[in-house]
Write a structure and sequence with these properties.
By secondary structure, this protein is α+β, with helices and mostly antiparallel strands. The protein folds into 2 domains: about 60 residues, Orthogonal Bundle (Arc Repressor Mutant, subunit A); about 80 residues, Glutaredoxin (3-Layer(aba) Sandwich), CATH 3.40.30.10. About 45% of the residues lie in helices and about 10% in strands. A 4-stranded mixed β-sheet has the order 2-1-3-4, with helices on one face. α5 links the parallel β1 and β2. α1 runs antiparallel to α2, α1 packs parallel to α3 and α3 crosses α4. The radius of gyration is 18 Å and the shape is elongated. The two termini are about 35 Å apart. The structure holds FE2/S2 (inorganic) cluster. The site of FE2/S2 (inorganic) cluster has 12 residues, from α5.
């Protein structure tokens, strides 16, 4: 199916129940693909392959068509957001002040690439464009907290402050 290389993300059993409820509402309705996917994503936050498979079965459409829609529209995601959501600015000012090393160090620590989440869903790593605060570059944001003038060599100490 040409599935992109992603860690295997799964719904919790509680999320599964919610997703199944939504899917059963749309059972057999072929034109309902986008609404059902939207509804599930709004409810559980992402659309893993297992869920796509169920949607395909219940709506009676090929799995690859569901996958095609999920990967085509940027508002759909197959990646859950981590409890600790790390965003690193890679705008020019941050980049020249070491943002690339910040990202590399976090990637190595957590074993994920930018755009991914650890399979335990504790951490996610994202790259941002300029956040408009170049004077305090390089910048990293964890959930709502902004870290300024981040030293790439100390970034692991910051991440480790966040409980798993
Ligand atoms: S480049 Fe990072 S805040 Fe502007």
């Amino acid at each position: 199916m040409g599935v992109i290389d992603l860690p295997k993300y799964e719904l919790t059993s509680e999320e599964n129940i919610k997703a199944n409820k939504i899917i059963s509402k749309y059972k057999g309705k072929r034109g309902a693909l986008i609404p059902v996917l939207q509804n599930i994503q709004e409810t559980v936050g992402f659309l893993p392959l297992d869920v796509q498979r169920k949607v395909a079965d219940e709506l009676g459409i090929p799995e690859k068509d569901v996958y095609g829609v999920v990967t085509f529209y940027s508002f759909f995601t197959m990646v859950p957001r981590g409890k600790c959501n790390i965003r690193v600015c890679m705008g020019t000012a941050c980049f020249v002040k070491g943002a690339k090393r910040i990202v590399e160090n976090i990637s190595n620590l957590l074993g994920i690439k930018p755009g991914q989440t650890t399979t335990d869903r504790n951490y996610s790593l994202q790259i941002n464009r300029c956040l408009g605060a170049c004077g305090i570059a390089p910048i990293m944001v964890i959930n709502d907290k902004v870290y300024q003038k981040v030293d790439p060599d100390k970034v692991i100490d910051i991440i480790n402050k966040y409980p798993q």
